[in-house]
Amino acid sequence: MLLAQISDIHASDKNDNLHRLRAVVEWLLSIRPDAIIVTGDLIDDDWIDGYSEIEALLAQHQCPLSIIPGNSDSPHIMRQVLGQLDCWHHPSALHTIRTLGSIRVVGVDTRVDGKTYGDIICHLDWLGETLDIVKSSDETTILFTHHHLFPTGIDPIDKIMCLGAVQFEQFISARLNKPIAICSGHVHRAMFSTIANVPSYICGSVCAANPLLLDDVRTPPVTDPPAIMLHDFRSGRLVSSNVSI
Known about the structure:
Blueprint: E1 2-6, H1 17-31, E2 35-39, H2 49-58, E3 65-68, H3 75-82, E4 96-100, E5 103-108, E6 118-119, H4 124-132, E7 140-145, H5 155-158, E8 162-163, H6 165-173, E9 181-184, E10 191-195, E11 198-202, E12 227-234, E13 237-244
Parallel strand pairs: 1-2, 2-3, 5-7, 6-8, 7-9, 9-11
Antiparallel strand pairs: 1-12, 4-5, 10-11, 12-13
Helix pairs in contact: 1-2
């Protein structure tokens, strides 16, 4: 099962990020993933037309498409424009669950209205119930959010990370049926760590990357092209690749 993760497109009629997404889509056509998940921040500047533009590009793949919102998105408009995707079944939050063979793709809507940071605390009950629904012993969950759940060391970005990261780590640590991986976006840079001994990934962005500002002294240049992640699950093992395009 090959799952492509795309994040942080930030499409607007004032930038060329749709062009960057087209390059991503063309590259993916060469590898043909079994499913795609977009982990938030599809548009910028309230460019509502961007949702249908993005959906039309991704529809070229003719594979299951799941989307969760980011802080720059409008959930209400997303439901209106993208409702035909049939990937949201929660009455309020845009959580998503999709079963792909023995893999369950679970996306948690961590956005907070009017804020750039996220919050997962209020969704832990739902997530616990969702993780407990296991139909067979070989079923495996990959968990997705927009906001990152481990500190990156980039101070301006960590100030707007997901609230409840400590509680989330305790929540995951206490579970017998842990996800096989925790995957996020938001940072505009690929980064990797662990949460409660679970591999945790931050997908790079389609839009321009953020600099790796690990302190106030060193300011490295930004040379990163658009980036995505590929999550390849086979024979009970997940291998995740960062792909620059």
